[in-house]
Amino acid sequence: MVARATAVDAVGLEGRAAALATRSIKRDAKIWGLELAIRCMDLTTLEGTDTTGKIVAMCAKAVRPDPMRPDVPSVAAVCLYPQLVPVAVEQLRGTGVAVASVAGGFPSGLGPLDARLQEIRDVAAAGADEVDIVLNRSLFLGGRYAEAFEELVAAREAAVSTRLKVILETGELGSYDRVRQASMLSMAAGADFIKTSTGKIGVNATLPTALCMMEAARDFHDQAGRKVGIKVAGGVRRAKQSLQYLVLVHETLGPDWMTPERFRIGASSLLNDVLMQLEKERTGHYSGPDYFTID
Amino acid sequence: MERPAGVAPPWEYASAPESTDVVRLEDRYGLFIGGEFVEPKSGRWFPTISPSTEETLAEVAEADPADVARAADAARDALPGWRGLAPAERAKYVFRIARQLQDRAREFAVLETMNGGKPIKESRDVDIPLAAAHFFYYAGWADKLEYAFPGRGAPRAVGVAGQIIPWNFPLLMAAWKLAPALAAGNTAVLKPAETTPLTALFLAQVTQEAELPPGVVNIVTGAGETGAALVDADVDKIAFTGSTEVGKIIRRSTAGTGKRLTLELGGKAANIVFEDAPLDQAVEGVVNGIFFNQGHVCCAGSRLLVQEPVFDALLGKLKDRLQTLRVGDPLDKNTDVGAINSRAQLDKIAELVESGVEEGAEIYQPECVLPERGFWFRPTLFTGVSQSHRIAREEIFGPVLSILTFRTVDEAIEKANNTPYGLSAGVWTEKGSRILHMAQRLRAGVVWANTFNRFDPTSPFGGFKESGFGREGGLHGLEPYLAFDGGGDGGDR
Q1: Which of B23, B334, B362, B472 is the most exposed place for a label (fewest CB within 10 A)?
Q2: Taking CB atoms and an 8 Å limit, are B3 and A76 in contact across chains?
Q3: Which residue of B has its CA nearest to A41?
Q4: Per-residue pLDDT tens for A183-205?
């Protein structure tokens, strides 16, 4: 499947992504898109400084992003480090907001395999609904596709019934051809989602990269009959960007993917910009950043 | 709070129309002769409409032979002054026009879309910027002409150029014609197409504002008879872009007159997709190749040749992609496919499509709601097409793609070249050596690799065989407007 992955032309891909980014999304379509962006958001904190207090606050924000507007939907999930999973599980019980944990030696994925798999089992056992792991780029870029694939299969097994998101770390893969190959490999190994980035390196999600992964998911669905979700992460800070990604989903994968079940945006600071744009659409004018809570 | 789940409703983009307030239309436009708008001696006027609403936008003068002669005389009178101007001064005027086009890009784009029916995103992002780029490019040559063609002797302007342009890219074609002519020191009489004269007339106003000396650019409006009068008028060169049929007539009537001639005519380009191609980008290229500007493109990739192993995959992707094409109001910024330029063209497309069905090709059209008023045609695919079908031979000049298959490289080349035309071709493959091999063997003026319909003012464009002769763009496009002391002028080539 990796060897037969369709080639990708960079100029054409980037041209298509740029063209879709000029779609003009106004009025009702904009409000619907912004609310969907919230419903598809993985509110994320992945810092060494994260504490129980930070997670408690973020969970409150995830459930009710705008205290002044109870009609604003909750986000899809919070995304955090394994040790803090129990805190989030406790905070989010019964809210419908999922708990997602990175695992498997995030962000490099180069620890001992047993330890990485154990970490995945642990977060699943601790009550995480979703687990975000990394593709082993060392194996993948070294051409050891079968081993990279086997690792993902093992991770899939370790994750049991939790939703498995595989991070390709596209900024390290070097070409869109590689992105497409890595997408096919991860989907074939059983990923529920393929995800662009860890957010830990310089180049994170970009529109062309996301488009490339979406085209791979479309082909995978055509060939294997299974719908795999897309998660963009890192660098998505503005409401306008989130709408651009939604346009890509809409015109590449169609309405079946326009749902938190199959599309996610991993972000930490995006939420307030989306809230501000929503408020602007409803009231006709902008308020300031102090009108939105920082948690 | 409970999170809404499940499958989302279709996301309907709210309409996002570009405002037409920027455009100020006069009720009537006279002929632009000697630097001003004048009443036609013919006394005749005709309406020009918006093909998307069928509303009349303005009335335009119809030039008869006497009007055309008057324009040619004005150009002749202006010639010594313009040709004799210091080249750097001439360059300033051409640069000024280029900058005006940029300054007023939005007006030009909206007007182009109103009068021609093409999507605003195309007039905004392609037509107008490219038109400005052509003026900028040729302005740069104006004071460097003696270095442009080493060994050819001292260059001088040919004289008065009669230029006849089509309705598919009205302003861009005017720029392709006027920019090199003016930069080389020629004066011009330009005849825009009868269905789309407005941006050329707006360009006339811009040349007034740029204080271009009167008579350097003259614009006569009208249909075929006006064009015929221009061909017969006292001009030194004819440049024509349009149908092969009319091109042949022009060639006959200029024969033996000593008038120089360049023709840019029809096409039936092959877009060739090999099995190793980047398929998703190829789909975009194929879509752009045939549905860009509703297929009203002489170099449109109207024949798709697909290598058999990827035929099913590519066809599936193409059909899916067609479903996402947004057909409708060309002023909406989200529209992908706009209105057919005229009722006559719509009838022609419909007739050819009918012939395709009758000859046994299988038709596919996406479901889309077309506006009630105006001229519209659904994006159309034909499969099961063979080389002998009319839809594989004749230029349809509409959003209609004929799909054929091939097995080997040689078969692809043979089929691609098996046409009376030879304007452009597209090759989709990851293999660089194959691209070069194809480029050598394809008898087409332009061969695009892993892209399509890409233009640049520095790059020559023109055809083989019934697609015409002479090149536009680049140095090749400058040459027909220059004569050289000490060398043969070439004349009617």
Answers
A1: B362
A2: yes
A3: B3
A4: 999 999 999 999 999 999 999 99
